[in-house]
Design a protein that fits this description.
Blueprint: E1 7-15, E2 21-29, H1 39-46, H2 49-73, E3 77-81, H3 85-105, H4 108-123, E4 127-132, E5 135-140, E6 143-146, E7 149-152, H5 155-187, H6 198-228, H7 230-234, H8 240-255, E8 261-263, H9 267-275, E9 281-286
Antiparallel strand pairs: 1-2, 3-9, 4-5, 5-6, 6-7, 8-9
Helix pairs in contact: 2-3, 2-5, 3-5, 4-5, 4-8, 5-6, 5-8, 6-8
């Protein structure tokens, strides 16, 4: 027989009286042959999406929470030797971010609301809205409660991971930057910039906040409001309340100066050591704020 072995394809083409055409093709075999799939297709077809999304969420959740807890619980003391210009630059970049996490840990009005929001993302309700027509339900990371029934979640873990990537982690990094700017301004360690460069400086310092807030508000409107109604937009700790929290944390970070984490070298001394790598080292310490 002509089609007794192997994989074959049948195509059917049709045209109506108005001249519209369409063609449909379909694979078939007589001996049980099957089409082959690539590595990417096999991965998505054969993997357990629930476990994959849970693992993805857990990884990014660790990135968002663990640095805060480490900076809060432990006294971090780092000593860097600027042995070369490249090594010194990398170490100074790393130490600057360790210092900023220390600043967040030493600022209770910033640290605790940020930590509570991260916890609520994992265990608290994301929103309350009309899940089904005429039925109010609750959406959590692990599933949905509606009509007295529990529906396990799969894509919710993916949405949670995206929320961490697009909001939680960038906001944490931005708040550390704000606290660093606030502390530097109080000690007058940050060099003043010419007035003509002020708009560019402000944009570089705060464009991240503008982007994440606008994106968060857009997702709240386009996602929850259009899908689940006004109630889901108002009672939405995940997105709507997060925008209010972001403005509050920004205000606390920019207008409050916390002395819990202080570098032993001033900005001028550090710049001199960066220019002369043969000179010794720079030590930073972080203590919990009283």
């Amino acid at each position: 027989m002509l089609y007794s072995q192997g994989l074959h394809v049948i195509r059917v083409s049709a045209e109506d009286s108005l001249g519209f055409q369409n063609e449909v093709s379909h694979y078939f075999s007589v001996d049980g042959s099957r089409p082959s799939f690539g590595v990417t297709s096999r991965f998505f077809l054969m993997s357990d999406h629930t476990k994959l999304f849970r693992t993805t969420f857990a990884i990014f959740y660790g990135f968002a929470v663990l640095p805060l807890l480490i900076a809060k619980v432990f006294q971090i003391r780092v000593q860097a030797v600027f042995s070369s210009r490249m090594t010194g630059c990398l170490l100074r970049f790393l130490l600057s971010w360790i210092r900023r996490f220390c600043l967040i840990g030493s600022a209770p009005k910033v640290f605790y609301p940020l930590l509570v929001y991260n916890i609520c993302l994992a265990v608290g309700p994301w929103f309350v809205g009309e899940i089904l027509e005429g039925e109010i339900g609750f959406c959590f990371l692990f599933g949905i409660f509606v009509m007295g029934k529990y529906i396990p979640g799969t894509l919710t873990y993916l949405y949670g991971a995206l929320q961490l990537i697009m909001f939680n982690i960038p906001l944490t990094l931005y708040l550390g930057r704000c606290l660093d700017l606030s502390l530097s301004a109080s000690k007058q360690t940050r060099p003043s910039c010419p007035s003509r460069l002020w708009p560019l400086t402000w944009l570089l310092d705060h464009c991240c906040f503008v982007v994440i807030v606008l994106l968060q508000f857009y997702l709240a409107i386009s996602g929850f409001y259009r899908a689940y109604g006004l109630l889901a937009l108002v009672l939405c700790p995940m997105r709507t309340w997060a925008v209010v929290l972001a403005f509050y944390l920004r205000k606390q970070a920019l207008h409050k100066v916390h002395g819990g984490c202080v570098g032993s070298s001033s900005g001028t001394e550090l710049a001199q050591k960066q220019q002369n790598p043969a000179q010794a080292s720079s030590q930073m310490s972080c203590d919990s704020a009283e």
